[in-house]
Amino acid sequence: MFAITVRRHATISRFFSAVCDESRCSMLGKPPFRRLGGPMAWSERPITPDTEGSQGVTVRPGRMKDVPGVWKLTEEVKWNKHQDMIETLFKMCENGWNIAEKDGDVVGCYLSHEFDSGLKTAGHFIVSPKMQGRGVGAKLMSKYFEEFGDRNIYAGAISPLLDTYEKYSGAPLSKGDTGGNYYGVFKNIPLPPDMEQKYHLIDFRHVDMSDLIGYDTSYHVVPRPEMLKIWLGQTTAKSLVLLEKGKIAGYGSIRPAMNGFYLGPLYAENTVGTMVLLKGLIDLIPRDSSVDFFLPHSNEAGREILKANESTIGLYDTFHKFATKSYIPVPKWNNVFALLSNECALC
After folding, report:
1. Region 164-173: what's the mean pLDDT?
2. Fewest Cβ atoms nearer than 10 Å: which of 141, 266, 275, 314?
3. How high does pLDDT run on average in the chain?
4. What are the start-end ranges of the H helices in the chain?
5. 290 band by pLDDT with thresholds 50, 70 and 90
6. Does residue 249 carry a pLDDT above 80?
7. Where in the chain are all domains bearing CATH 3.40.630.90?
8. pTM, rounded to two decimals
9. CATH number of the 42-176 domain
10. DSSP state of 303
């Protein structure tokens, strides 16, 4: 079962092919770092002041039936999400969504997830462009801090929003690691010759889940079994485990987005392992597909891979991880090539 060869994953699911045919964004003849119909970089978005114009807006707990409304919000702000991914985030963070609603329409949202009594995460904070500047965001954030303000809340944000979050937290934020939101086509993965032979790639369902959870916990300290099972098991996702001498040396997942595909998480013990795992995941999708991913700047493999693909992959947002009280990075942050989802403030 654990042969020391890299298994090729040439088979592409019908769903993956269909999504790619419908929404692939070709990079040929276009600026490589601009999505076609994709999100506007946060640095280009106006940050409007809060006002008291949110009359008629109510904030309530989210329900599964809100998935289409939240997905519509992601389209309005041009986040590159597929509806399946939004549904998966709802399942992962059950009872963690809050919805701003006006006249029956979803006009804002955020999600949260509780790991333990002292750790809470927050993310996926969106306000409809039609309602921005009317106090909807202020209403959502006030609700969150009213419920959880005494907790140590972890989150991720692009640089221009740090001051806004600090304003609502009422105290300086504890800022941590940085990274980038990248988008483009992987044309070249600079693997040293013959190094692939050290590893074996298998579908995550062929690995003892307790072993995979244990590996994930080596990064996060706090176990997250249900979250991992739901995310990796999403129907439209492809998730692989990297083995070295029969032991888990990494794992990763890729799934359809509205434009191309979303990569994350991708964890591995070293640079070569990262490249082998990345190549295995990229082999699962149609050639020259665009890929969206959140990359920590401290990842060595990431620097090498970006350099090898500098004409086809680029940065459009820089993000900071932070906490409202005390930021403690994950122990193996440097081994993280791609985050699970920065929108839910989790690796």
Report:
1. 82
2. 314
3. 82
4. 14-23, 67-76, 83-92, 136-148, 162-169, 209-220, 225-232, 271-282, 300-308
5. very high
6. yes
7. 14-26+181-344
8. 0.83
9. 3.40.630.30
10. H
